[in-house]
Design brief:
elongated; 292 residues; alpha/beta; binds 1,3,4-trihydroxy-5-OXO-cyclohexanecarboxylic acid; five-stranded mixed sheet; 60s Ribosomal Protein L30, Chain: A
Length: 292
């Protein structure tokens, strides 16, 4: 059977020590024997494989990045890097090559720090706890998937990699007085900080919604955005309901924009007295004590 698929089998740190290293956990097979078993199985399935091992995160990242032009899939045992390498996770997330994460041992039955895999959420799947069979089962998974199904996965991943999403950032600032200049200056400061922290270009902006507490009526904050040249972006001002005990003279903003960034990468901005509204976003030494 010829599959026309070519896979990269990647072993991470310390897996060159297989056979000698904690054999009660990882078994007695050496890496050489393991690779020989992988190659034999791949041949039976009509798949070509390249087996590589490195103890260095950067080398593994280089191999993953290069995989896009060379391989249809990756079988990856990241070793201990599984549990903390965001760089490896990002490398896998950034390519349209399906990756099956494998482990010789059952990482969920071991120490707590091994229960987390930062790789798993971006992997196509994960197989662990079955010794060297994990690699052979991963080979079968690749062999059994039709070329059409695999092409559909790659296409979907490519679309996802390039697709921008509309995200929103929040911000707030308070002013000392219900004064036109103060409102416009504070709004400008707030918008500038939001734009800077989130690297937003004018053309990425979708809409900006401003709200002010009922004690501020000297100016529409949207005017500050107009003065900054946001002419094509829809802007909207609203007055908030008057909640007892809320931070007085406060301007809030919700800015919607298109980006490739994830939800957790949004930098929300709270300035001056409004820092008190989201103390969780601040470092303890700069937070103030006002209630909102
Ligand atoms: C391993 C599990 C990891 O926790 C450990 O650090 C390894 C090997 C496995 O194959 O079981 O190096 O990935």
């Amino acid at each position: 059977m010829k599959n026309n698929k070519c896979l990269l089998v990647l072993h991470g740190p310390n897996l060159n020590m297989l056979g000698k290293r904690e054999p009660e956990i990882y078994g007695t097979l050496t890496l050489e024997t393991l690779n020989a078993l992988i190659c034999r199985k791949a041949e039976e399935l009509g798949i070509s494989v390249d087996c590589r091992q490195s103890n260095h995160e950067g080398v593994l990242i280089d191999l993953i990045q290069e995989a896009e032009s060379k391989y249809n899939g990756i079988i990856f045992n990241p070793g201990a890097l599984t549990h903390y390498s965001i760089a490896l996770r990002d490398a896998i997330a950034g390519i349209a090559v399906p990756t099956i994460e494998v482990h010789l041992s059952n990482i969920y039955g071991r120490e707590d720090f091994r229960h987390l895999s930062v790789i798993a959420p971006v992997a196509r799947g994960q197989i662990c706890g079955l010794g060297h069979q994990a690699y052979l089962l991963a080979l079968e998974a690749f062999a059994n998937e039709s070329t059409q199904d695999q092409a559909a996965w790659v296409l979907e991943k490519k679309i996802n990699l390039s697709r921008e999403k509309t995200r929103a950032v929040r911000g707030a600032i308070d002013v000392a007085m219900n004064d036109e200049q103060e409102i416009l200056q504070a709004t400008t400061e707030l918008l500038r900080e939001i734009i800077l922290k989130n690297n937003i270009r004018k053309e990425d902006a979708v809409a900006v919604i401003f709200s002010v507490t009922a004690d501020l009526n000297a100016a529409f904050p949207a005017r500050a955005a107009r003065q900054m040249g946001w002419n094509d972006v829809p802007l909207f001002d609203v007055v908030e309901i008057d909640v007892p005990g809320a931070l007085p003279r406060c301007i809030r903003v919700l800015l919607l924009f298109n980006t490739n960034k994830g939800l957790h990468e949004m930098a929300h901005v709270y300035l001056k007295g409004a820092i008190a509204l989201r103390k969780d976003l601040q470092t303890p030494d700069i937070s103030q004590n006002k209630k909102g």
